[in-house]
Amino acid sequence: MSDPAARRLEGRVAVVTGASRGIGRALARLIAAEGAHVVAVARTVGGLEELDDEIKAAGGSATLAPLDLADMAGIDRLGGAIAERWGRLDGLVANAGMLGVLSPIGHIEAKVFEKTFAVNVTATWRLIRAVDPLLRRSEAGRAVVLSSGAAHSCKAFWSLYAATKAACEALVRSWAHETDTLALRVNSVDPGATRTAMRKQAMPGEDPLTLPTAEDVAARILPLLFTEVTETGGLFNVRENRFTAYQKPA
Ligand code: NDP
User: Fold this and answer.
1) Domain span at residue 59?
2) Any idea which GO molecular function terms this record carries (predicted)?
3) Which of 90, 105, 175, 215 is the most buried (most CB within 10 A)?
4) Nearest ligand 1 atom to alpha carbon 119
């Protein structure tokens, strides 16, 4: 068990989506090790159960919430369940995402486009909508939404994924503007290339051992959930260790 004196999220409740593997699972473990109760969301029950075992072995606690984020009503029910049990939410990590397809824009199938937007964008909005009132009730609500460098580089064949991540950043910036007089702080994160299943799908020829692990990257994202955070609406680039502050509109 970690040193209670060092547990910087003691007594807090945090939702982590995409907690069955990759960056989300690593971050969920770290958040729990800091003393928060983690609500772990993903479709793969086996991955969630492994996470639960890891968290318990380290002296932490979690609630598993198996959910396909394409199920919008399910997201609303998740928000309702958190409201009923805790009456507030202290942390949100909107990490779940899918690559969709890397393809010339004219070759993307409509159903792939719609599914990728549903999971990456509509579900992120729906989750924000479901938990915004609960985060506002926290003394120091913190939200982190996973973006990507693709949102800005917009390389050939990356249009679908890039557009979803650009949309997520826009949601975060507007949300920050709506809430910047409150204790709530919301930020986007570009984790950079990370050794996960999604990166393998995008770059099958790449040697994964050349990339930072999900654990390395999660450790850099974790501080955005601490009460000390003052910035809101910004973008943290993990690879460059650079925080770009949000320029507040006039
Ligand atoms: P992984 O593919 O390893 O993990 C994705 C997670 O999202 C899984 O836990 C998966 O769970 C969950 N997920 C996907 N679809 C759904 C769904 N429909 N409903 C519920 N959960 C879902 O990805 P990474 O860890 O690499 O990526 C995490 C985030 O970081 C993503 O938003 C990604 O876009 C972003 N990112 C990653 C980079 C990288 O190099 N890895 C670079 C830049 C950004 P399950 O399948 O069990 O449902």
Assistant:
1) 4-244
2) oxidoreductase activity
3) 90
4) 18
